[in-house]
Amino acid sequence: MSAVEATAGITVVTVNRESCCGAGQCVLAAPAVFTQSEEDGLVVLLDPDPPAGLRDAVRRAQSHCPTRSITVR
Amino acid sequence: MDPGSSSGPASSSGSGLFEVPIRRACPFDPPPGLAGLRAAEPITRRVMPLDGTELWLVTSHDLVRRMLADPRWSSTVDGGLSPEQPLHMTQPEPGMFLSMDAPEHGRYRRMLTAHFTVQRMNRLRPRIEQIVAERLDAMERLPHPVDLVAEFALPVPSLVICELLGMPYEDRAEFQEAARTGVDMTASPEQSDAAMARLGAHLAKLIAAKREEPDDALIGELIREGALTDGELVHISILLLLAGHETTANMLGLGTLLLLHHPDQLALVREGAPGAADELLRYLSIVDLVMFRGAKEDLTLGGREIRAGEFGLASLSAANRDPALCEDPDRLDVTRPKTAHVALGFGPHQCLGQNLARLELEIALQALLRRFPGLRAAVPLDEVPVRENAAIHGLHSLPVTW
Ligand code: HEM
Ligand code: SF4
């Protein structure tokens, strides 16, 4: 499985590059947490444990992602 | 009473079903009747008045997103807009990935995603700014009134696609002419077939030239990556053109008209409100009555049992005005935080060109309103000719002066 996961901290963000369609909604919502790879255009997680101030932005990225490739715990 | 009954009489097909409301009473708003359906029966059996097909009409934000994200609903459908071509399952041409399902769809989509990322599109900004400035210069030299659709809304996106594909300057005028007729829904079938043939020939020539000397534009890069045949490259180019030309053009034309109706919002866009493109996309939902899908297997959606082989239609305009999506959804507010609107679709087919579209809309609208601070319609606003029954909603023309 290609999921990238981190376990430390309060917010844990996971992305699934298998289902990602490279729409970039996550980059628009939370550019400090998500980017798109120059290689394949798919999501790359920059910060699996973002600071509390970015929580809403990460939630927005999760809800706007068209392929539900982002999970937040 | 049936909540959709205001939309028209029961179908003449003998099924006794009510019709899908397709006619917008106001060019900016969803067809009347959809709001009632969304509240009362967000998934409901209806008949398409254009081709007579019976289908499931889906109108709530939640169910539209569920449907478009569900791989059991196939995109391999075509037709639906005329009695000659009723909605049917189809076998798409190699490269036409808009009408494909996984895994074929993903193979093509993945070859293109790297070329359409947010970062990549931002690198096109200076070129888009230049194209827009040149069109505004040309408009300034014309006698008034000027047709904003012909002189600005149509040429900007087609020149941007030429830039993206790497079309040489000397070929652009001819390419634009063929593209314009090819995507013109009001052209006769013979005219559009002939234009599409010219377009295909143009693209084949372009691809042959790039095979000789690949450059850094999209076709050159795809050739260098080496995985696609010439036939696939032609169809991908046509898809990009069809998907990116009329949509952006109609957003620019109809979006300008909408802003002329809302001077306070127009001022905010001129000042550079960052969320304006997404709010205009949400509010206008110009791609609406063409979001067809076909059920590949039996499934349930919103408590209704759907059988394999049945069709569905996601109403993006109804979903985008769902009170569950945002506060006061019928109010245009370019300052609202970005919503989870579905104007660009949802699921694996969500618009590939969305970050280009946002950039084009932002740059073009802001530059237009700054260049012509006194921009106004040269005809009464309610006399602007609206395209009826078009696959993509928009204006025929918009005479303006300043
Ligand atoms: C400006 C407004 C635009 C709107 C409203 C729009 C809307 C849409 C929608 C609703 C879809 C989903 C279709 C479906 O699921 O069946 C879509 C797909 C697509 N769009 Fe756009 N689009 C716009 C601009 C563009 C631009 C500028 C380009 C490219 C240059 C583009 C290229 C595409 C492509 C290639 C697809 C197919 C993606 C796939 O099947 O994976 N679009 N668009
Ligand atoms: S929003 Fe979802 S589909 Fe789009 S790039 Fe991010 S993870 Fe991928």
Automatic annotation (TrEMBL), chain A:
Keyword Phosphoprotein part of the UniProt annotation: no
GO molecular function: 3 iron, 4 sulfur cluster binding; electron transfer activity; iron ion binding
Keywords: 3Fe-4S, Electron transport, Iron, Iron-sulfur, Metal-binding, Transport
Cofactor(s) of this protein: [3Fe-4S] cluster
Protein purpose: Ferredoxins are iron-sulfur proteins that transfer electrons in a wide variety of metabolic reactions.
PANTHER family the record matches: FERREDOXIN
Name the record gives this protein: Ferredoxin
